[in-house]
Design brief:
By secondary structure, the chain is α+β, with helices and mostly antiparallel strands. It contains six helices and 27 strands. The strands form three sheets. Strands 5-1-7-8-9-6-2-3-4-18-17-16-10-14 form a 14-stranded antiparallel β-sheet. Helix 1 packs antiparallel against helix 2 and helix 3 packs antiparallel against helix 4. It starts with a strand and ends in a 7-residue tail after the last strand.
Length: 379
């Protein structure tokens, strides 16, 4: 094999191919990037039996072939090469990478032992990349990072005839987002995608035009594929039943407060400075506004008052500040509504529902909803 390619294009392609590979693997061959020549140039691929990445780039091919080489090492080298065309060629079991006056020699891996990449099925739907990326960012923060319960480490995609829903939870909060998409299917279906993979998909394809989503079922390996701009990512789906968290959301809430999103974010960040880890912030809502209070270790204390428009009776809730900030990061409106749900125990605050608000008086769209369980105040 021998080819030349643009240095930046080649570096981006290798970085994309290795981005989803695990830092450590029991099979060294799975840490490799497979480079193959095509009629248009090159394809670069990676696969660890769970996640695959494949991209195609233009290149000037002098000698066709295929080679497998250490992915992360090649990515580091390509990123550091001088700003000049990259030349890659093979010499027996060695791969020689050169650019400008720089030259590197790497050992190749046995291509015959590399697994075949999964085949992506027919498209399920097409979605605007920017909207999809934003929705992923809004929801993925609520996914669990505890591998003890794999089913909640994923984001559930709920594919309908007109909209695609995204749902995530870690038991303490739930995030939901709905976005319009184009699909030929008439039935509803779901796909539970690992949150880490979906987050990388959002980052990678955010600047593309449209993303094609393909859900492939049948057999033991159910998978999902995301494709855009000559790039494809596939992932095995998580097996198991996602908890029915949508039923936790109330139909109507009559007790709520509306306040500036930016002011609430900044005040929460300031007041939480005195808190010890995992401690909660106290939010007291009244007709005079909202007061944030924190009591930290070594007698450190902080408080701040903000303007807020309260509908319904006064309310006091205690929330983990970072959990609230995660929800507020998904509110893309000037104002935010914090709705206080009820429980059977009048002395026990219910979950707090976070939604966007166009103005102090006009409710916003509920395409994005974030439900946060408060830490109960000791009375």
């Amino acid at each position: 094999m021998r080819f030349q390619a643009n240095r930046d294009v080649f570096s981006d392609a290798v970085s994309f191919a290795v981005k989803l590979l695990p830092q450590r693997t029991t099979l060294p061959i799975l840490s490799g990037v497979l480079i193959e020549t095509t009629e248009r140039g090159l394809t670069l691929s990676s696969f660890d039996y769970e996640v695959s990445a494949r991209t195609e780039i233009d290149a000037e091919v002098q000698e066709p072939g295929r080679v497998l080489v250490s992915g992360r090492l090649l990515a580091d080298i390509a990123n550091r090469l001088p700003s000049a065309p990259v030349e890659v060629r093979t010499d027996d079991n060695r791969v020689i990478v050169s650019g400008g006056s720089a030259r590197f020699t790497l050992l190749s891996m046995p291509v015959a032992e590399y697994p075949s990449l999964p085949v992506v099925g027919e498209p399920t739907g097409v979605i605007p990349a920017g909207n999809f990326s934003a929705a992923i960012a809004q929801v993925v923060v609520a996914a669990s990072r505890d591998d003890v319960t794999p089913v909640i480490t994923g984001v559930q995609l709920e594919a309908g005839p007109t909209a695609l829903g995204l749902v995530a939870t870690d038991r303490y909060r739930v995030a939901i987002r709905a976005i319009e998409w184009h699909t030929e299917q008439t039935d509803d279906s779901t796909a539970l995608v690992p949150a880490r993979t979906l987050q990388e998909v959002g980052r990678t394809f955010g600047g593309s035009g449209d993303v094609t989503i393909s859900i492939t079922r049948g057999g033991d390996r159910e998978l999902i594929g995301f494709s855009a701009d000559r790039r494809t990512v596939t992932s095995l789906l998580i097996k198991g039943n996602f908890p029915p968290v949508r039923r936790l959301f109330p139909d109507v809430v009559e007790n709520f407060a509306v306040l500036s999103t930016a002011e609430l974010v900044e005040a929460t960040r300031r007041v939480q400075l005195v808190l010890e880890r995992e401690a909660a912030l106290k939010y007291s809502f009244s007709t005079e506004g909202v007061t944030l209070e924190a009591a930290g270790g070594e007698q450190a204390q902080a408080s701040e008052q903000l303007d807020a428009v309260l509908t319904g009776p006064d309310m006091v809730v205690s929330l983990k500040p970072q959990f609230l900030l995660d929800g507020l990061s998904g509110v893309h409106t000037e104002f935010v509504r914090l709705s206080f749900t009820k429980t059977e125990n009048p002395n026990k605050p219910g979950p707090v529902l976070v939604t966007g608000q166009r103005s102090k008086d006009e409710a916003g769209s509920e395409d994005y909803r974030y439900l946060l369980q408060p830490n109960l105040l000791l009375r």
